[in-house]
From TrEMBL:
Pathway: Metabolic intermediate biosynthesis; chorismate biosynthesis; chorismate from D-erythrose 4-phosphate and phosphoenolpyruvate: step 3/7. Keywords: Amino-acid biosynthesis, Aromatic amino acid biosynthesis, Lyase. Its EC number is 4.2.1.10. The lineage of its organism: Bacteria, Bacillati, Bacillota, Clostridia, Christensenellales. The gene is aroQ. HAMAP family: AroQ (MF_00169). This is 3-dehydroquinate dehydratase. Substrate binds at N73, H79, D86, I100, S101, R110. The active site is at Y22 (proton acceptor), H99 (proton donor). It comes from Guopingia tenuis.
Length: 142
């Protein structure tokens, strides 16, 4: 099995930005935890981060053939990108929506996810561990 961990805008600033919300670990630290779990589960994981909507859409399209699942933290695009939603709907590959923070306990605009209806499920509020839970969820699903 091969999974893609796809992170959207500002996630490259994890560990630097709003530490009280997103924690002190960097995206590289999170990748390390995911790599360790992937090894334990005997699966392959690739990582991609972009601050650009179109680049994320290209990766989702590529995931249609190359991957058994996608773990997606779309950042703020979650709340308004119909283009990312359509890209998820366009592929057969299951996508799990992840948020580091509990988006429901924050500003009103974060309570809406336009991608949730086309995702397999959503994990939010468990910090970086959410990515690990998503990987386990994908593994147990198939
Ligand atoms: C986030 C939550 C979003 O609302 C925010 O725009 C992010 C990160 C999270 O991981 O908690 O950039 O997706």
């Amino acid at each position: 099995k091969r999974y893609l961990v796809l992170n959207g805008p500002n996630l490259n600033m994890t560990g630097i930005r709003e530490r009280g919300v997103y924690g002190t670990g960097t995206l590289e630290d999170i990748y390390g935890e995911i790599r360790a779990l992937a090894e334990e589960l005997g699966v392959e994981v690739d990582f991609y981060q972009s601050n650009y909507e179109g680049a994320l859409i290209d990766q989702l399209h590529a995931a249609h053939e190359g991957y058994d699942g996608v773990i997606l933290n779309a950042g703020a695009y979650t709340h308004y990108s119909y283009a990312i939603r359509d890209a998820i709907a366009a592929i057969d590959t299951p996508v799990v929506e992840v948020h580091i923070s509990n988006v429901h306990a924050r500003e009103e605009f974060r309570k809406t996810s336009v991608i949730a209806p086309v995702c397999m499920g959503t994990i939010a509020g468990f910090g970086p561990k959410g990515y690990l839970l998503a990987l386990r969820a994908l593994e147990e699903e198939e």
